[in-house]
Write a structure and sequence with these properties.
It is built from 9 helices and 4 strands. It is mostly helical and 265 residues long. Helix 3 crosses helix 8. Its cofactor is heme c.
Length: 265
């Protein structure tokens, strides 16, 4: 029983470390200052830059989707970043998804529909680990919410790859990243050259631009209702302010009448 309890504690500790935000890993290391990217969706009245989010989806589709899934999104959700019904259907049809069984009891592949979830790059976690030297690429759907620093952290991580400073030894199979806690990361730089993606709108695809765009897309994916929620919050504040003013005015009027009807001493 004691051995079993020790095993449970070890498993719980491993799970806690795996789920901890990036900032928790910074403890014990030098303090990391993330660059402030000034995303358009920051602040109370911030909104998503639809053009940037669409370019970010292109970066995800052409680069990130080779390893990372986004299983909590369906292709129909892309209407939220400005794609119309025909564009969503065309984008979805570029992917093959597994379906079935058919009349013969066999699984088969077909072009994705707008209602389908984003296609996974690997059929299961075991296949994903086998293709990545034992590491499991995390799902990116809510990655912005799962990491301290959010979109600023993801943007910094993508542009933070560089040669290690003198005296720093990078372990075999690791890469130096000045914004990653501990500065050694197993993931090779996914965005490593200008023009790696050819944007449909003609925007120059620098590493920094691609990093900002895919961070914008992932921020939208994590909170697609962000703008509606903020809009509702502003309306509620205005409503409560007006209601409070009316209640105060009614209160003053009622008490004024009571003071007028009080008998003289």
């Amino acid at each position: 029983m004691r051995r079993y309890a020790t095993t449970l504690k070890a498993a719980a500790l491993a799970a806690a470390l795996a789920l901890a935000p990036a900032g928790a890993w910074a403890q014990g290391h030098d303090e990391i200052h993330l660059p402030d990217t000034k995303f358009s969706f920051e602040g109370v009245f911030g909104t998503f830059d639809r053009a940037s989010a669409q370019r970010g989806f292109q970066v995800y589709k052409e680069v990130c989707s080779a390893c990372h899934a986004m299983r909590h999104l369906s292709y129909r959700h892309l209407r939220g970043i400005g794609f119309n019904e025909a564009q969503v259907a065309a984008l979805a049809s570029q992917f093959q998804v597994q379906d079935g069984p058919n009349d013969n009891g066999e699984m088969f592949e077909r072009p994705a529909r707008a209602s389908d979830h984003f296609r996974r790059p690997f059929p299961n976690d075991a296949a994903a680990r086998a293709a990545n030297n034992g590491a499991l690429p995390p799902d990116l759907t809510v990655m912005v919410k799962a990491r301290e620093g959010g979109a600023d952290y993801l943007h910094a991580l993508l542009i933070g790859y560089e040669e290690p400073p003198p005296g720093v030894t990078v372990a075999n199979g690791m890469h130096y990243n000045k914004y990653f806690p501990g500065h050694q990361i197993a993931m090779p730089p996914p965005l490593n050259s200008e023009g790696q993606v050819t944007y449909a709108d003609g925007t120059k695809a620098t590493v920094d631009q691609m990093s900002q765009d895919v961070s914008t897309f992932l921020a939208w994916a994590a909170e697609p209702e962000l703008e509606q929620r903020r809009s509702m919050g502003v309306r509620m504040i205005i409503y409560l302010a007006i209601l409070g003013g009316l209640v105060f005015a009614v209160k003053k009027k009622i008490w004024a009448r009571l003071h007028q009807t009080e008998p003289a001493p």
